[in-house]
């Protein structure tokens, strides 16, 4: 009888260090020690999929083979994708205020730069559609390091227990309750899903043409990802992203994130909100 349980998930300190170093080289993200359980659980699942007896064996194969596809898949799975609809709602209130006075002759161009499974860009899209109209010419690019997260965003399907942060009017207008096999899930309405541009982008590396070609942006949401970079990489990422802002454009970071000491042409307007000067 074929085994269906996952292989043992234990991991030596040496293997944990090796996989964290590999992850940082390819993503720019430093995994802290407190994320060890997350790493071990993800590696255990990867080992099961690869038919290997343990997470330790998977890391050994990963380091020995250096197979680009396996490395990419590992980086994909180890990426931390914590998000939910209308996270840090003050940012969406601020966006709504800006859109209410936005000149209709120049629709805004936005970028959700670490979109995870899509809750942030769909929250942005709901506000844009509510304030400007679905067909008002606004643009919204959503990118993430993980190809799996980009595909999840494309599908736009989420457990019903994720809807708590969505304002009732927007929930009614842009979300559909799943039926039959989709019971217990919600789907983002197709017209809103079709307004998103999606692309994979590693913020720790030069940005791909899909991002550069979509700019310059009026507003970039770069929230709750900078905390995973060390100071030099944090500066490089913010500089790379800020270059895609038009002069006068806004950069929104997470409430727990700071750009202090990075010496970039960004003016702090209020906590977590910056404007490009030149």
Structural summary, described in words:
This protein is an alpha/beta fold. It has 2 domains: 66 residues, Chemotaxis Receptor Methyltransferase Cher, domain 1; 188 residues, Rossmann fold (3-Layer(aba) Sandwich), CATH 3.40.50. The chain is 41% helix and 18% strand. It contains 11 helices and 10 strands. The strands form 2 sheets. Strands 6-2-1-7-8-10-9 form a 7-stranded mixed β-sheet. The chain has a 3-stranded antiparallel β-sheet with strand order 3-5-4. The chain is globular, with a radius of gyration of 20 Å. The model has no long low-confidence stretch (mean pLDDT 90).
Mean pLDDT: 90
| Fourth-tier CATH superfamily name of the largest domain | Vaccinia Virus protein VP39
Question: β content, as a range?
Answer: 15-25%
The CATH first-level class of the largest domain comes to Alpha Beta
Structural class: alpha/beta
Q: Share of helix among residues?
A: 40-55%
Oligomeric assembly: single chain
Biggest sheet details: 7 strands, mixed
Query: What does the overall shape look like?
Result: globular
Task: Count helical runs.
Answer: 11
Order of helices and strands: HHHHHEHEHEHEEHEHEHEEE
The tally of beta strands, per DSSP, is 10
């Amino acid at each position: 009888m074929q085994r269906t349980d996952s292989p043992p998930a234990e991991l030596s300190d040496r293997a944990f260090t090796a996989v964290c170093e590999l992850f940082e080289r390819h993503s720019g993200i430093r995994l802290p020690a407190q994320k060890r359980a997350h790493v071990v659980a993800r590696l255990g699942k990867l080992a099961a999929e690869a038919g290997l007896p343990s997470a330790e064996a998977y890391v050994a194969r990963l380091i020995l083979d250096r197979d680009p596809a396996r490395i990419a898949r590992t980086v994909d799975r180890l990426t931390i994708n914590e998000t939910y609809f209308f996270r840090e709602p003050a940012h969406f209130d601020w966006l709504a205020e800006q859109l209410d006075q936005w000149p209709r002759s120049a629709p805004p161009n936005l970028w959700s730069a670490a979109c995870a499974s899509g809750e942030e860009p769909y929250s942005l899209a709901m506000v844009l559609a509510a304030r400007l109209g679905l067909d008002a010419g606004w643009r919204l690019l959503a990118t993430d390091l993980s190809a799996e997260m980009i595909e999840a965003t494309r599908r736009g399907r989420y457990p019903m227990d994720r809807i708590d942060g969505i304002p009732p009017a927007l929930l009614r207008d842009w979300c559909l309750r799943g039926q039959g096999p989709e019971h217990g899930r919600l789907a983002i309405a197709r017209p809103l899903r079709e307004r998103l541009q999606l692309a994979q982008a590693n913020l720790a590396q030069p940005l791909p043409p899909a991002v550069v070609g979509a700019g310059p942006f009026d507003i970039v949401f770069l929230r709750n990802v900078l905390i995973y970079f060390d100071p030099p990489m944090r500066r490089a990422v913010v500089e790379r992203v800020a270059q895609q802002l038009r002069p006068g454009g806004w950069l929104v970071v997470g409430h727990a994130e700071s750009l202090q000491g990075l010496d970039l042409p960004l003016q702090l307007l209020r906590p977590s909100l910056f404007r490009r000067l030149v």
